[in-house]
């Protein structure tokens, strides 16, 4: 029986999707607390690190989408390879965002920690999608059977003929 749609997702793709959900939540919540009160979001402190974190989320979503919509395992594996590199960059960027706070930030808020957790989940999920080689998620190819050879048929009459 062929698995369809979301049922084709394996553990690696599901972990990557959970990481992408954490990244989306982290982008919407405050990332830093201000020293004088209030908060700063990812969008108020946007920079290259934020772009790399978003790259990790886009890669995780691409891994899951390729596993759902592709018929063979080649495209999902290739997508997982490239998304793993994006997730590595996203983890490094999230660590930098947690350790190096922008001017005026007093501490890391829930959004900052969710960005770090999401980037880590994206990395683990993409890595897991790349190494999970179960074939039960994909339909095996169907090959039309060849007819059996006929006794004394055409194959035996030209056995000695040059090709």
How would you characterize this protein structure?
This protein is mainly alpha-helical and 163 residues long. It has one domain: Four Helix Bundle (Hemerythrin (Met), subunit A). Helix content is 56%, strand content 6%. It has five helices and three strands; from the N terminus they run αββααβαα. It has helices at 11-28, 48-69, 74-99, 110-131, 154-157, and strands at residues 32-34, 39-40, 105-108. A three-stranded antiparallel β-sheet has the order 2-1-3. A hairpin with a 4-residue loop joins strand 1 (32-34) and strand 2. The longest helix is centred in the middle third of the chain and has 26 residues, at 74-99. It is rod-shaped. The two termini are 44 Å apart. 33% of the residues are buried. The model has no long low-confidence stretch (mean pLDDT 84).
CATH architecture: Up-down Bundle
Strand content: 5-15%
- Low-confidence spans: none
Q: So how many helices? A: 5
CATH C-level class is Mainly Alpha
Count the strands?
A: 3
Largest beta-sheet characterization: 3 strands, antiparallel
Structural class: mainly alpha
Integer-rounded radius of gyration? 25 Å
Sequence of strands across the biggest β-sheet: 2-1-3
Order of helical and strand elements: HEEHHEHH
Estimate the helix proportion, in percent: 55-70%
CATH topology-level fold name: Four Helix Bundle (Hemerythrin (Met), subunit A)
**Overall geometric form:** rod-shaped
């Amino acid at each position: 029986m062929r698995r369809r749609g979301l049922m084709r997702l394996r553990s690696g793709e599901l972990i990557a999707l959970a990481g992408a959900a954490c990244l989306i939540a982290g982008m919407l919540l405050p990332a830093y607390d201000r020293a004088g009160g209030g908060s700063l979001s990812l969008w108020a402190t946007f920079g290259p690190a934020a772009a790399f974190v978003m790259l990790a989320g886009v890669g995780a979503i691409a891994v899951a989408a390729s596993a759902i919509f592709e018929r063979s395992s080649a495209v999902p594996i290739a997508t997982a390879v490239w998304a793993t590199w994006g997730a590595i960059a996203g983890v490094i960027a999230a660590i930098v965002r947690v350790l190096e706070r922008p001017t005026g930030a007093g501490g890391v808020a829930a959004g900052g920690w969710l960005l770090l957790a999401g980037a880590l989940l994206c990395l683990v999920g993409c890595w897991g999608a790349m190494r999970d080689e179960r074939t039960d998620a994909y339909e095996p190819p169907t090959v039309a059977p060849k007819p059996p050879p006929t006794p004394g048929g055409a194959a035996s009459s030209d056995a000695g003929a040059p090709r």
